[in-house]
Each structure stands twice: as C-alpha cells, then as structure tokens.
Amino acid sequence: MSMKSEIKRKSLHLAGLTVPAVYLLFGKEAALFFVGLSFVMFIVLEPLRIVEHFRDRLKRKLGLYVDRQLIEIVEREIDIIAREHERRSIGAHIYFALAAFVIVYFFPRDIAIGSIAVATLGDAVAAIIGKPFGKHRFKNGKSLEGSLAYFVTALLILSSLIDLPHALIGALAGTLAEFYELPPDDNFSNQLAVAVTLYAFRNIAF
C-alpha cells in the first residue's frame, strides 16, 4: 500500500477516537450505545462490501439517485485503503468496534479511554512515521522508528490519564501488540492488550 493510501486509511481509522470522546463527554452508557450501534451497522453493511452480488445490487439501486461516477470513485477509494485480506473478509472496523465495546463494558473508565485512544492514534502515528522514515526494518516489515513513534504516542496519552508506571507498562504492551499484529486482527488485539495489561498491573501491583 502506498504512503498516500496509508494516510487515507489511518485518517479513516482516526474516527475511532469518537469512542473515547463520547465516553468522556457523555459517559459509559452513551459510549456503549454508540459503539454497539456502530457494530450492528457494520455487521449489516459488511456483506455489501465483500459480496460482489450484493454490492452490484446496491450500486444499481444507488445509481437511480446518485451519480454513477461518484459511486465508482467511492468504491475505488474503499478498495485502495483496504488491506488485501480485507477485500474478501471481515474488515478492521468490525474488529475495532467489537473490542471497543468489550473494553468500555468491562474495564474502568481511564483504562477504557486510554486503551482505545492508544490503539487508534498510536497505530496511525506508527504508520505515518514508520513508512517514510523507517530506516531500521525488522523481518515483518515493521520499523524501529515506527515502533518508537507508537510507544511515545501511547506514553503521552496514558500518562495524561494514569500514573507514569502504569503508562509505561501500557505503552510497552501496546507497542508489542502492534509490532506482532496479534490475531485475529491488530485492531482487536491492540486495544485489548493495553486494557488487560493495565488492569492486571493495577490489581497485581496495588
């Protein structure tokens, strides 16, 4: 994926910051409703994205009301920012929404807000720094520069919400999860890695 496409993809992923924003402004129940509704909508619409038959039917119906050239432009942009494996399988947005719902429901407010913000913003910064400026590459294609960018971003976010020892361990957990791209999808595992680590460290250490 080109750097331009990567920036477009990460810009779209930054919409995930609406989850901690809703939590901060309106509380836990509003955040759960927002994420839950988003997840249901994603599930309903997903077949239209990955099943060609459904997608073609939708395009024909939309073509009655929307300029066909605009439809083609939108479809092309979606294909450009999608990972290869996402073009015929579950998209990152579904994994993200599912993990965000679990985290908001089960974890304390500061951990939930921090872990979702870290996974969203940290991943974006790692890609934007790592792809053009990454000079020290690992076998999996990740770069030292990108990982450091993630760690610093995560540390800044978490240290504004929790104490420094917890912020350090949470940032490290997120960095490792992002580096190894833990299954089933890094948009799922990254958030949970930070949340579970912070919760465990808080309860074991204190």
Structure description:
The structure is a single chain. The protein is 78% helix and 0% strand. The protein is built from ten helices and no strands. It has helices at residues 3-13, 18-26, 28-50, 52-62, 68-81, 92-106, 109-133, 144-159, 164-180, 186-205. This is Phytol kinase.
Q: Approximately how much beta-strand content do the residues carry?
A: under 5%
Poorly predicted spans:
none
Number of helices: 10
Largest sheet: none
Oligomeric status:
single chain
Order of helices and strands: HHHHHHHHHH
Fraction of residues in H or I helices = over 70%
Q: What's the number of structural domains? A: 1
Q: Classify the secondary structure makeup into a structural class.
A: mainly alpha
Computed over alpha carbons, the radius of gyration is: 18 Å
Distance between the termini: 44 Å
The tally of beta strands, per DSSP, is: 0
- Anisotropy-based shape: globular
Secondary-structure map:
Layout: H1 3-13, H2 18-26, H3 28-50, H4 52-62, H5 68-81, H6 92-106, H7 109-133, H8 144-159, H9 164-180, H10 186-205
Helix pairs in contact: 1-7, 2-3, 2-7, 3-4, 3-6, 6-7, 6-10, 7-8, 7-9, 7-10, 8-9, 9-10
GO molecular function: ATP-dependent diacylglycerol kinase activity
Transmembrane segments: 12-27, 33-51, 90-107, 113-134, 146-168
Organism: Thermococcus barophilus (strain DSM 11836 / MP)
